[in-house]
Every structure is written in C-alpha cells, then in structure tokens.
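Fold this sequence, please.
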Amino acid sequence: MRRFILTGTPGAGKTAILRQLEIEGFGVVEEAATDVIALEQARGVAEPWLTPDFIDKVVNLQQARVVRAACLPGDIQFHDRSPVCTAALARFLGAPLPDALSRELRRLEEERPYEQRVFFVQSPGFVTPTEARRISLEEARRFEALHERTYAAHGFELIPIAPGSVLDRVAAIRRAL
C-alpha cells in the first residue's frame, strides 16, 4: 500500500482535491483537526484549539482513521494531513508536543508508513474564513512555512501543487505518481 500525504496552507483546497481523488477511485483519509474542531464547537467550545487536550484529540482521531484506512480498497491512499502536520499545528499554537504525538512521530520515522514524497498544496493567495478556520492570510503563510520546515525536519520531500483548478491539481498529483 502506498500512502501519500496531502498538506499545505489552511484553505488551500486540500479537501476539494481529496474529494476528486476519491471520485477517481483512490482511497482517502480525512483530516482530523477540522473534525475535532467541529465536534467541540458543537459541544459549545468556541475555540477548541486553545484547550489543553486539543492536540491529543487530533492525534487520537488520526490514529483511528489510519487503522480504518487499512480496509480501503486499492493500492494507493491519500491522507489529508498527517501527524507531522499535527506537530506543526502544536508548534504554531505554542502547545507542547503531547507524549502520544511524540510516540507517533517516532513510529513514522521507524516504520515509514507514508511515502516520503508529500504533496504540498500551495495557497491560492487568500483564505476563506470558516467557523473552524479562523486564520488570516498572514498567519496562514506563517503556518505554511512552518509546515515546510517541519516536514523537511522529518525527512520528507515536498512536491508543490500550484494553485489552479481542482482538476489541474489532481492531474499534477497523478503525473507525480
């Protein structure tokens, strides 16, 4: 099984790309952080990313989704973000890396379950705010740069996916496969 990571700036279009890849028959694994935020907001927590256990909740959901992904058909999967992204998120938020995330990062280095080439979906130059995405373009650019540094520090090679239509971006991913 080849597992590829999609990462990049918040609001860059990763989810739309993931949906198209799914339509084309690839196995896909959803991003965890956005779903944790949505669930916690539904429970009345306005800014769940500020709670002490936020990163732990993201890691736990990521791990559960990876386990379920073992049942997906096909020999190529695309994962919307990874524990490396979660490490970048923790750093961006100024939060310590929880033990579970540190263990997961060590496991990634030892087992290499993901392809070392990561598809880095580049910013279209704007950010559309949502309830879960309350980030300015300037903050998104800092977060993007932090992602690049974090992936490089973990030995991954970033394959840039330039702004464009969803179909053009998916075509770029297919070419890189």
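The beta strands are 2-8, 27-29, 76-80, 117-121, 157-161. The chain has a mean pLDDT of 92.
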